[in-house]
Amino acid sequence: MQTTEPVVVADEQLNYPFLLITHMVCADQQIHNQEAKSLRELASQAKVSQQTLDEMEKILAQDEQQLSVDSVAQAVPRKQRAEAIQQLLAIAYVDGFCSPLEREMIEHISQLWSVPSETIQRLLVRAESTAAKVKSSDEETQTLSFGARLLKGADSLLSRSLVNKLSEIAPQDVSRKVEQLRQEILLAGPEYDDAIHQCSEVAREDYKFAELALHSTYTALRELGLNIQQVVEEIRNKTTAKGQAGTAKEVAKQLENTRRSLTAEIIEDLGKVRASLQAKQRALNHFSIAFMGRTKAGKSTLHAIVTNEGWDAIGVGKQRTTRYNRVYEWKNVRIIDTPGIGAPGGKTDEEIARSIIEEADVVCYVVTNDNILQTEFDFLKVLKEKAKPLIILLNVKHNLRDSRRLEHFLQNPEKLFAMDGKSGLGGHIERIRRYAKQNYANDYFSIVPAMLIAAQISRETEDQKRKQQLFQASKLQDFLDSIRVSLIKHGVIRRSQTLLGSTVGSIEEPEKWIKGEAQEYEQLIKKLKDKRDTVQQKLQRAKKDTTEALQQLLETNFQVALNLVPSFAEDHWKSNEISMKSGWEERLKAIKFEDSLKLASQEASQKFTQEVQEILEEVGNELQLVAELKGDEFKFSKQKSGGLDRDLLRITRNILGIAATVLVFFPPLAPIGAVFGVSAFVAGFLDKFFKTKGQRRHEAVEKITSSLSSQIQEQKILVIQKAQAQFHQHCESIERSILEYFDELIEGLTKIRVHLEQAQTKLSASSNYLNRAYAKRIIDHCLEQREPLNEANISKTVLRVKREFGRSIIISTKSPLQSKKSLGELKEVLQENISIPNAKF
């Protein structure tokens, strides 16, 4: 069936490839002010139209009227699409790493353009390979040459201009500088430069530890995926006894599904680890402060006051303008404005806000006094999971746009900040602390009230006296001072907290998953071993019961034949051998003797087959445990067929080869009629020489009866013995096949469990490696000293570290310490429960 692309009417005045580049710059959900500036310069170099510039601004502002990625991509002329893909790859890989969000956008566009996924994967692999090759070269040269390599063969004006702007557009380009300091209310004072210098030195040392730990984690996860793949290949290639090939194949199918599911988890974790490392790289040269909170809480206003930028996004009808993380930086400080949390349909906004947490040194959570809801503090769980320090700004809302109210406020600004009384802030602060503590695990954070509207109006007035009065009355300086202290006084340890302390979370998350998986496999293996023993016992009991039933059926049929002997002897006492043999065969045919024996074997076979199928149904239920480990694609279908799952019947056929087959193991009968010739000869001899006719008749009948009965008894014993031997052999074959299935499945799962445990050990070592380095930084902070962070200095100080990530850390030192910090101060700074048993505070 042929499909057609939606028809998109393209505006010839718009440069759609350039607009795709703009979307790609926004793909990481951060819009850096320098990126926007570089895009505008690129637009100038590429000589795009004013209409294109207008659309670019809409995309950067996330205007509701912007052209979506889909509409832009569909409007790119077909002949320009190959080059457009190269341009997108150049943007995505300019830093040597394509983030999951960037990869997602490229794959999405390729689907819109019906580009085969194999082609895109090939381009991605080639780009990643190119990135690896140039990794060791000079950073600036690397960026430009890497972009040039990816754009090789692309000769449009846009591509040529893009090569020259890649280093500025790249969000990870650590060399860019933004000189835009218009006020110094946040960073005034001579101690700032010294603090920034110390933060920078500490960050470079700490990053080496974080990079090594994350690299080790990445390697361990990648090896885990390869080892699981190897297990599957071993099982797939295993050769078993003749007739049992289905066993290994079936196990391989099960393990292949497990491998796919585990691999999907591992790939996701690998992406998170690499994204975490990228976040640490972005955070390396800057002290980062993130503003978070629900929509309309005042984040953008606070951001505009601090940076003196973005005022056009403040005011009536301007809500929810921050749809991406907006990054402003100067003097090695980054201020990050995030989208609102908890807005209707704002799930994507919250995900965007989450993406910045890794690189933030301090999170300022903005709430208002007019609508304090418990739900708006749920997000603090995420901050605690990342071990992020927290400052809560209580934005006191009051209508100061009314001139009378403004004058009344200025006469007594303290009145609105009073803690006690019916309208006091004390109750609000207590409620905030209670709600926040429920999600943040402790209450070491500060809650600072301020009136942002007063600070905002202070920026609007030209009256310097009124300006100063309003800003002072807003009490925003108290909040800014707390940020200042975070940087000046605690900046060094906060940097270590970001680069060392919180990085542990990026390792512990996959470690906990791997540990859980190993435990699940351990439980599954135990259950499978128990089930194997149970199944073996049931099979042996079924074999015994069916053997006895088979013997009874065969004996019954032979008894029927024995019952024919007396009458047959009376009728044939004087027949010759030929007629006697023929007559006996006729008697057996009349009672369908041989068919009855075969039917007896069929009934026994069917009985055993039914019992095996019932046992296998339990096996199938046990195999369902494997399905429950990972995902829907691994689960048996629930379509029923004859009371058994179709998948179970398939497994039964592959393992046993007995479904839809009835076992016939009745051995061929010996020539019972051959004895009749002997009996007839004896009777004839007696008749001729010695006896009367009555005597001869009586004795002949007795001889025939005795001889035939004896032969039938002997034949019965032989038939039953042979039937039982063949039946036992068949049962053992089935039992062996089922047990081999279990053994191979257990073996494969055991190998996977071992690989999981080995990976967990490696990740645990990486976590401990970082925790020990972090502990050394904490000790240095307590002693107000700073030693180079290396293995020797860590080992001479730190004995061991026990940490519940984000909640508590116990540091055992090798010698007693005399801390220059109080324990309470230390807990408030790190916002974790700290214990150093060998230290005096």
Chart the SSEs and their pairings.
Blueprint: H1 16-25, E1 30-32, H2 33-45, H3 50-60, H4 69-75, H5 78-92, H6 100-112, H7 117-133, H8 139-150, H9 157-169, H10 191-237, H11 245-283, E2 287-293, H12 299-307, E3 325-330, E4 333-337, H13 347-354, E5 362-368, H14 380-385, E6 390-395, H15 403-411, H16 426-440, E7 446-450, H17 452-460, H18 464-474, H19 476-488, H20 491-501, H21 503-571, H22 577-590, H23 593-629, E8 640-641, E9 644-645, H24 646-656, H25 675-689, H26 693-783, H27 791-797, E10 798-804, E11 808-813, E12 817-818, H28 823-830, E13 833-835, E14 839-840
Parallel strand pairs: 1-3, 2-4, 2-5, 5-6, 6-7, 11-13, 12-14
Antiparallel strand pairs: 3-4, 8-9, 10-11
Helix pairs in contact: 1-3, 1-4, 1-5, 2-9, 5-6, 5-8, 5-9, 8-9, 10-11, 10-20, 10-26, 11-21, 11-24, 11-26, 12-17, 17-18, 20-26, 21-23, 21-26, 22-25, 23-24, 25-26, 26-27
Provide structural commentary:
- The protein is of the alpha/beta class and 841 residues long.
- It has 4 domains: 16-169, no CATH class; 286-501, P-loop containing nucleotide triphosphate hydrolases (Rossmann fold), CATH 3.40.50; 509-764, no CATH class; 767-840, GMP Synthetase, Chain A, domain 3 (2-Layer Sandwich).
- Strand 3 (325-330) and strand 4 (333-337) form a beta hairpin.
- The protein starts with 15 loop residues before the first helix and ends with a strand.
